[in-house]
Amino acid sequence: MDPVLVKMAFIGLGVLGCIGLVFGIGLALAAHKFAVKINPKVEEVLEVLAGAQ
Amino acid sequence: MGAALVLLVVLAGCRTEHRFVKKVTFEKTNDIVITFAGPVDAAWAKNVDNYTVFEKEDPDILLAIKEITLTPDRTKVTLHFKNALNQSRAHTLMIKDIISEGKSQGAAVLTVKKLYLGYLFSILIGAMLIHNFVFTKYLGLCVFFGTSQKRTTAVGMGITFTIVIVFASMLSWFMYQFILKPIRLDYLQVVVFIGLVSLSVQAVDTILRKVNPALFKAFGVYLVLVIANCIILATPLILADKEYNAWESFMLSLGAGTGFLIALFLMSCVREKLELANVPPTYRGLPIAFIVAGLFALAFLGFSGMAIF
What we know:
Largest sheet of chain B: 4 strands, antiparallel
Distance between the termini of chain B: 23 Å
Number of helices of chain B: 11
Number of strands of chain A: 0
Structural class of chain B: alpha+beta
Oligomer: heterodimer
Strand order of the largest sheet of chain B: 1-2-5-4
Order of helices and strands of chain B: HEEHEEEEEEEHHHHHHHHH
Helix content of chain B: 40-55%
Strand content of chain B: 5-15%
Mean pLDDT of chain A: 85
Largest sheet of chain A: none
Number of helices of chain A: 2
Low-confidence stretches of chain A: none
Order of helices and strands of chain A: HH
Number of strands of chain B: 9
Largest interface: A-B, 15 and 18 residues
Mean pLDDT of chain B: 85
């Protein structure tokens, strides 16, 4: 294999991984900061229902 | 606001790079008009060798000048070219020392181009009507048919879509121009753009849920549906392909969003009326909707080939 291509592939993996990580952390922080309290009973009721649609 | 816009237009129209040249513009199909600040020497102005004109991207192809005319007050020179100029591209005009009343005013290198705001506006209208994504490129049809049953949902979906597409396209444009292209990863553009689109949808969803619950409720399920729309992926790909800059990208994505909004609105108006019409049972529902969409596409074909500015 051409070492140039291998290097390019690894750079791609690294950069895209970093971008993904940064945005993932950003989204997690946003979800934490803008968290909305949802009544836990809503989920419980939904679970009991048949839920085909 | 209006005054600022006018000022911008005026500034964009009169900007030149030489103090003695007031304005350079295209005129008709093969003319360039140069306006000088003072009267120039007639013998100098009429000499074809004093001017060199070429398209900015092709400096080795010089354009041949057929004739030069001068107005009686000797401030306006018109260059007539042998062939029609491609006015959508920027041209470079080089003038050898300008002689005005026996004195030299120095040489000038000028750029001739069409009004930039007009160009931006033509991108907007082009994406909105002439190359409407739904009716001329047949993209985003599943969401188009899914949400065009009622006028209120159609408008809600269109507005949500416009906001998200502008946000996602600008993000994708930035990523492509400043990260993917410099490290030669542009072959991964599709993967990255899909990620960015879902990221922006998720971000809008999360933030809107907290900041404006009423609006969030109004958008409802449509916000998530935006991910499944292919216009929102096509736009960044077009931006990457055409190498647009920030303003052009903004205009194209805004045009794509509002074009989708227009398409949804028109379709929902017709479909609300269709509910009351006596449609044969085989055609009820989606089949007649497809036929109506086809008729709209035919109508939008009337815009094709139109050029603005």
